[in-house]
């Protein structure tokens, strides 16, 4: 091999080495970019889940008091109607029809508020259902519990004594409030505890 041929061979080998190095570098950069993009997407997904989990908890926590309030107002309106009917019977009072109409209107308005709150609750529970971990039966049980509230109605109002009637009124109002509050606190508490448990399992908190 002549010196010229040897030199050309050396140059060719160098060019091939440079080309191989460049291709290897590009391949490495490609896979590194893909890895970084996958990591970025994973982090963004975890941050989104973290934020959604926290927002779902806050909305359900606040909704508990809202639903208790609307149900109690509806129950109290029904108790007041039964109270007035019994009071009129004991005192032999003829009530103007306008008062009865106004009372029924108030009951219907409060029932409408309850129905609106129940519809809003169903939307929140649908959100919780989507967020529920696969295979965890506690979530559907907790969600169903909030959709299937216990039925309520007052006991018959006494119609022989105003004193007994006043006692009945106070007792029924307290029973309605305590029973409903206890039920909803327990059922909301069950679902909120599951959301908090899920939050602990999220791998990353959003940057502070």
The major β-sheet equals:
none
Low-confidence stretches at least 5 residues in length (pLDDT < 50)?
none
Mean pLDDT: 84
Shape: elongated
Number of strands: 0
Helix proportion: over 70%
- The multimeric state of the shown protein is single chain
Distance between the termini: 68 Å
What order do the helices and strands follow? HHHH
Return the domain count.
1
Number of helical segments with 4 or more residues: 4
Which class of secondary structure composition applies to the elements? mainly alpha
Gyration radius over CA = 34 Å
Proportion of strand residues: under 5%
Could you please describe the fold and organization of this structure?
With 208 residues, this protein is mainly α. It has one domain. The chain is 84% helix and 0% strand. It contains four helices and no strands. Helix 1 packs antiparallel against helix 4 and helix 3 (138-147) runs antiparallel to helix 4 (162-201). The model has no long low-confidence stretch (mean pLDDT 84).
Write the layout of secondary structure elements.
Layout: H1 3-91, H2 97-131, H3 138-147, H4 162-201
Helix pairs in contact: 1-2, 1-4, 2-3, 3-4
Search tags:
208 residues, single chain, mainly alpha, 4 helices
Task: Please sum up the structure shown.
With 208 residues, this protein is mainly α.
């Amino acid at each position: 091999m002549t010196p010229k041929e040897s030199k050309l061979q050396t140059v060719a080998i160098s060019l091939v080495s440079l080309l191989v190095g460049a291709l290897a570098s590009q391949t490495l950069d490609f896979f590194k970019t893909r890895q970084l993009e996958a990591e970025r997407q994973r982090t963004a997904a975890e941050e989104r889940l973290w934020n959604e989990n926290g927002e779902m908890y806050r909305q359900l926590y606040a909704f508990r008091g809202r639903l208790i309030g609307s149900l109690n107002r509806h129950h109290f309106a029904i108790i007041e109607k039964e109270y007035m009917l019994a009071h009129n019977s004991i005192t032999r009072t003829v009530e103007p029809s306008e008062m009865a109409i106004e009372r029924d209107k108030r009951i219907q308005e409060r029932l409408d508020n309850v129905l609106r709150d129940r519809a809003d609750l169903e939307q929140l529970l649908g959100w919780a259902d989507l967020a529920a971990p696969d295979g965890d039966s506690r979530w559907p049980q907790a969600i169903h519990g909030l959709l299937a509230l216990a039925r309520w109605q007052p006991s018959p109002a006494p119609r022989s004594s105003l004193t007994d009637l006043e006692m009945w009124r106070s007792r029924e109002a307290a029973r309605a409030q305590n029973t409903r509050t206890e039920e909803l606190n327990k059922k909301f508490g069950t679902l909120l505890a599951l959301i908090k448990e899920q939050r602990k399992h999220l791998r990353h908190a959003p940057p502070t």
